[in-house]
Amino acid sequence: MSSEAAENVLVLVRHGESEWNKLNLFTGWKDPALSETGQKEAKLGGERLKSRGFKFDVAFTSSLQRAQKTCEIVLNEVGQSNLETIKDEKLNERFYGDLQGLNKDEARQKWGDEQVLIWRRSYDVAPPNGESLKNTAERVLPYYKSTVLPHVTKGEKVFIAAHGNSLRALIMDLEGLSGDEIVKRELATGVPIVYRLDKNGKYISKELIDN
Q1: Cα 170 from chain centroid (whole Å)
Q2: 93 belongs to an annotated ligand binding site
Q3: Residue 34 in contact with residue 15, Cβ under 8 Å?
Q4: Is 132 annotated as a binding residue?
Q5: pTM, rounded to two decimals
Q6: Residues with catalytic annotation?
Q7: CATH number of 3-208, picked from 3.40.50.1240, 1.20.210.10, 3.40.50.150, 3.90.950.10
Q8: N or C terminus: which one in the chain shows less Cβ crowding within 10 Å?
Q9: Cα angle vertex 110, ends 127, 164, to 5°?
Q10: Bigger pLDDT: 3 or 100?
Q11: For the chain, where are the alpha helices, taking DSSP H only?
Q12: Does 27 show up as a binding residue in the annotation?
């Protein structure tokens, strides 16, 4: 389906695999680069968007290089390497506090499997000195509504390259999901999610561009 078929289009992409993803480390606001695999994932996502005729009016990304590079690769693939791209830390990944930089297996050894699982998969329990998903939503959603949504409701086609948890926060709001529902939502790296929204920015439908 062409992006031209709907007036209001919002496309989300989780960044490709980073070097720390590959090493099974908690990353958060740390700033590793994309791995070679991550670059390929971003390129494939861009190719899939190009094959469906997508063009964008504005792009948003976080202050972290793995999301910025994903954004750059995707836009290059769709032939829009010079598109206006707005970068803001409010779209950053969840801040993992004391867990950042730790191997996930080492964290389980230190705090126990159950506690680490609670920190990773609960909605409102934060790791030591870090953010819960609820906290992440409290910075992502006001930014989306004040800065991104006006572009959407003007009929512009908007692209966001960000992170698993910043995008979960946004998806929770778009789809009207509960905290328990959104923590179970898995987002594949480099796979575009196309949201079609009404004139007020309310959810109509979504499509995964995964083939």
Answers
A1: 8
A2: yes
A3: yes
A4: no
A5: 0.95
A6: 15, 93
A7: 3.40.50.1240
A8: C
A9: 40
A10: 100
A11: 19-22, 36-51, 65-77, 104-111, 113-121, 133-143, 149-153, 164-175, 179-182
A12: yes
